[in-house]
Amino acid sequence: MPFETIFIGLLLALLYKETMGLYPGGIIVPAYLALTLDHPVPALTTVAVACLSLLIYKLLARYFILFGSRRFVLILLVGGVLSQVCALAAPRLIASPLEFQVIGFIIPGLLANNLERQNFLPTLASLITVTVATYFIANLVRIVF
């Protein structure tokens, strides 16, 4: 199931980008979020970490010259650090930490990068659209085959 979902997500994200002109949070992000839609808390946690990464980037951009590859790497690093903080802090703060896991260390940074490059609401709407479509098509493929 994960193998097919990743490829369906990649294909749908590419088609969406080509037709609408917007990245749905990155080419790979909707596929990974679709893998967790049976239990959506990790997907929501990942989006929250991406938003927090974007906020931290905007605060740092006031004091540092951040553009191009420096901007991209900083956003990825902030997303990765926040993912690691969630992984380490969740077991100590809540009773069931598995629900509040972030999906990977790169996914929040990729999403935050696209949230910064494009406007917030179109990117988030595109992400939701492609993620839900990937989830339903992958489940349909699983049922049929």
Can you give me a brief rundown of this structure?
The chain is an all-alpha fold. 74% of the residues lie in helices and 0% in strands.
Low-confidence stretches: none
As a percent range, the share of strand residues is: under 5%
pLDDT average, as an integer?
A: 92
SSE string, helices as H and strands as E: HHHHHH
The total count of strands amounts to: 0
Inertia-based shape: flat
How many separate structural domains?
1
Structural class: mainly alpha
Biggest sheet record: none
Number of helices: 6
Radius of gyration: 15 Å
Straight-line N-to-C gap: 11 Å
Helix content: over 70%
Structure description:
- With 145 residues, the protein is an all-alpha fold.
- The protein has one domain (2-144).
- It contains six helices and no strands.
- It has helices at 2-20, 29-34, 41-61, 68-93, 107-117, 120-144.
- The longest helix has 26 residues, at 68-93.
- The protein starts with a helix and ends with a helix.
Write the layout of secondary structure elements.
Elements: H1 2-20, H2 29-34, H3 41-61, H4 68-93, H5 107-117, H6 120-144
Helix pairs in contact: 1-6, 3-4, 3-5, 4-5
Name a few traits of the molecule.
6 helices; 0% strand; mainly alpha; 145 residues
